[in-house]
Every structure is written in C-alpha cells, then in structure tokens.
Design brief:
Blueprint: H1 2-28, H2 32-37, H3 48-69, H4 75-86, H5 99-141, H6 155-164
Helix pairs in contact: 1-5, 3-4, 3-5
Length: 165
C-alpha cells in the first residue's frame, strides 16, 4: 500500500502547490493597482520573496499556536516540531499530547506541505528562467537554434537592431 500511496501523495502535493500558486497569482492581481502592474498569464511569476514570506508567517503562526497549546513545549521546541514536520522529515520525538490537537495539526501540516510545494515550485520558476535564457543563447551561438528574443530590449533598440542587419 505504501508503494502506491506515497507517489500518489507526492503528485497530489505537487498539484496542491500549483493550485496555491494560482490562488496567490489571483490574489496579487485582484486589486486595481496590482492589475496594472501584473497580468495573469504564464509570463507572470509570483515573486519568490512573497512565497517565502507566506511560508515564514505560516511557520511562525504554527510555532506560536503549538507553544500555547502544548504547555510543556517552549518556542524553540514548537518551532522545531513545526519545521521538522513541515519539511516532511517528522522524526516523531515531538507530537501533540491531545488526540484532537493531533488531528487538527495533521490538517495544519497538510496545508503546510502544500505551501512548501508551492515555494519549491517558485524556486524552480526562478531558476528555470535564467537557465532557459542561457540555453537559448548558447544554442544560437553554436548555430543550433534561432536568435533568442531579448525581452529587455526597448522597441527603439529593436528597430535599430533590425535596421543594422
């Protein structure tokens, strides 16, 4: 059963991370001020800093909640529990003493794992863009592909570049 369940759970977490990324994109483009700055398309990437901020705040809220609920845990022990469990390691040296809290914490950590998946997806997007750009430039230099499109070039520079050819 574990041989089937773990890969399926990994796929579900990846999809949940994509859904959270889309929800964050919708949230960022919902206000009129941001709608002008951001357009909801494949080119718009959620800033990695935003995802890390959400993950940090989520962890701090969980740390505070567990320090309050589990009276024998301090802030450090609560942070350790939240970090280790959210990073999918979960050593089992700390666990909630109350069964109701254990069930509620499972839901907390399921969402936390999806949030981690979202941040890992944002890291991948952040790293992929420069690597893809470099790959296009190298293939052009080696004569194996078309000229890469420089999106940072202004319209007047593009016209001058075309006239120069």
């Amino acid at each position: 059963m574990l041989l089937i369940g773990i890969p399926i759970f990994t796929i579900v977490l990846g999809d949940a991370g994509k859904v959270l990324t889309l929800a964050l994109k919708l949230f960022l483009t919902s206000s009129p001020e941001n709608r002008k700055a951001y357009s909801l398309d494949d080119e718009f990437n959620v800033p990695l800093r935003t995802g890390l901020t959400f993950l940090t705040m989520y962890s701090l809220i969980g740390t505070t909640a567990f320090a309050y609920i589990e009276s024998e845990w301090g802030l450090f022990s609560s942070f350790y529990f939240v970090f280790i469990t959210t990073s999918t390691v979960g050593f089992g040296d700390y666990f909630p003493s109350n069964p109701v809290v254990a069930v509620m914490s499972s839901l907390y950590f399921l969402f936390g794992l999806a949030l981690c998946s979202m941040v890992l997806g944002l890291i991948q997007e952040t790293v992929d863009a420069p690597i893809n750009n470099l790959t296009k430039k190298v293939t052009f230099i080696l004569g194996m592909g078309p000229e890469p499109i420089d999106t940072k070039r202004s319209a007047s520079e593009s016209e001058e570049h075309m006239k120069g050819d």
